[in-house]
Structures are given as C-alpha cells and as structure tokens.
Batch of 3 targets.
Target 1
Amino acid sequence: MLRLPKLGDAGVVFVEGLVAGYSHKTFMTRIGGSFKCLTVVVTGSDLSLTTSFPYTVFARDLDIEHLIPLGKILKVEERGSIVEVEFLNEAGLPAKFSLRLRKAGEFVSAMRAKAFVSP
C-alpha cells in the first residue's frame, strides 16, 4: 500500500477524495476501475492515487494505485470532468489512467504548475 500524503503535509498542492477512475492497462482495468474510492494527491514532487480498505484488496489487479514522480508525467488532458493522465510506469513504459474529478480544472492547474506537462 502506498503512503498517502496528508493535506497538511508540506508541499501538498491538491487533494481530492472520493474520485472515480480507471487504468487503460487492459480491457479488465478499463471496465473495473474504481467508483468514488480513490484519493488523488499532488505534491511538489509526486502524483499519488490511493485507495482505502477494503478497496486496497483489488487495487493491484485494477491497476488503480500509483505513486508517480512528476517528472514521469507525459501528458494531462482535461475533457470536462474527466482528466486523462499519461505517464511512464516503473518499467519505463507508457501508461495511462482516467479520473473523474469534481475539481478537474484545479487538478490540471496544479499538475501544470508543478511539472512540465503538455496540454
């Protein structure tokens, strides 16, 4: 399980809980995903996607928990309340996930302010 930064931690610039999202890794991760069980945190150095128990049991299979250094983020694209994030995974391969955020604009602004991210 990933360590989730807290809102009061130094360097936290964005936090939103109860987020829905899914990985584009496989067909099963696209249809599985999560419905309002993710917490998204942007710090000065990382983007973290985490779940809480009991969803952590399925997090690995659904590819929904990530701790991504901002330098590995390739693209952030806002499409209404959906934000698609492309990044390099631990193996250095391109990966992608989609998030349904209530504060999509704030998330995109935070990501662009903290990393070189193409629109």
Target 2
Amino acid sequence: MALTQHEAEVKDVFLLKLIECNAENPVNVDEINMLKNHTIPESKTAKCLLACVFKKTSWMDEKGLFVMENAVKLTEEKHPKNSPALENSKKLFELCTKVNEEIFNDGEEDCERAAKLARCLIENATKLGFQLK
C-alpha cells in the first residue's frame, strides 16, 4: 500500500532535514539506503545524523530529549483534525517517550537516544497502521 499524502508530507520534512544534516554527519551510500529502508545503521555517524534530524525538526530538544508536543504539532499540520492517523500518531509518540527515561553514555551528542527513538518509531508505526514505504 502506498503512503497517504499526509504520510508523504511528513516523510518529505524529514528527508529535507536528512540532507541538511548529512553535511555535518556524512554517512555512506549504504547507510543512506539503510535509513531509506527504515533500518538504523550502527555507526556513530549515522546515529548522530538522526540526532541532527530530530533536533532540526524540534522533535528533540537541546538536551537530547524527545519532545512529544513538537512531534504532535508537526503531525497536526499534516493530518486532518480528529483523523485516525492523528490519533494513532499521538499513541505512537506516547509509546516512544520512554526513550527519555533511559540513560545513555554519549554526553551531549544524543546520538544513542536518537537511534533508540528512531527504532521505537519504526517498530511501532506499522502496528498503528502507518505505511513506511
């Protein structure tokens, strides 16, 4: 099944930020393909690329914490009010706020938390009816 228009718009926002962040955190072609296929590479650079993307979309704050309110705000801009997709987005974000409770040892880089957040979003999105392709 293809992406809905709203899902495609959200994905486009992230792709634009990914391109911007690749200048600061260059990853190789294989890692880009992994990300496009919703697999998180293990390299520190790829994880830091994700942290950059989440920060540029305001989904992570300067302390590296997931900001659910900002994720909901972007989703509200892209999904009609009271739509099942909007409600499921909120459920997805609520599930993934648990990454804020974990302690990571990468200082202020926030790369490990970003990778964990991305994994949580990917693993749970399809369970809530979202298309990732």
Target 3
Amino acid sequence: MIIGGQDSPGVFGGMGCERLKDCLRLAQMSVQRVGEDLMITAYRE
C-alpha cells in the first residue's frame, strides 16, 4: 500500500486518500537498487 498526498513529504503527490480502505492496493511488489535510488515495481490488485 502506498499512502501519500499533496501535503505529504516524499515523491508521491496527488489527492491521496482519506481512509485506508480507499487506498490503491498493490501486489507482486519488488524493490531494486539502481545506483543510489530505489526502483519500486508493483501491480494493481
């Protein structure tokens, strides 16, 4: 689950969600290091 919003710190912007049950659910998530960065790959459930 990714939680964010316009006023939250970090790289995710947008409207966000008011309740956790309304947030986008992700599956098959993987994280890879690419140099000094992280690449997060996931698919919608």
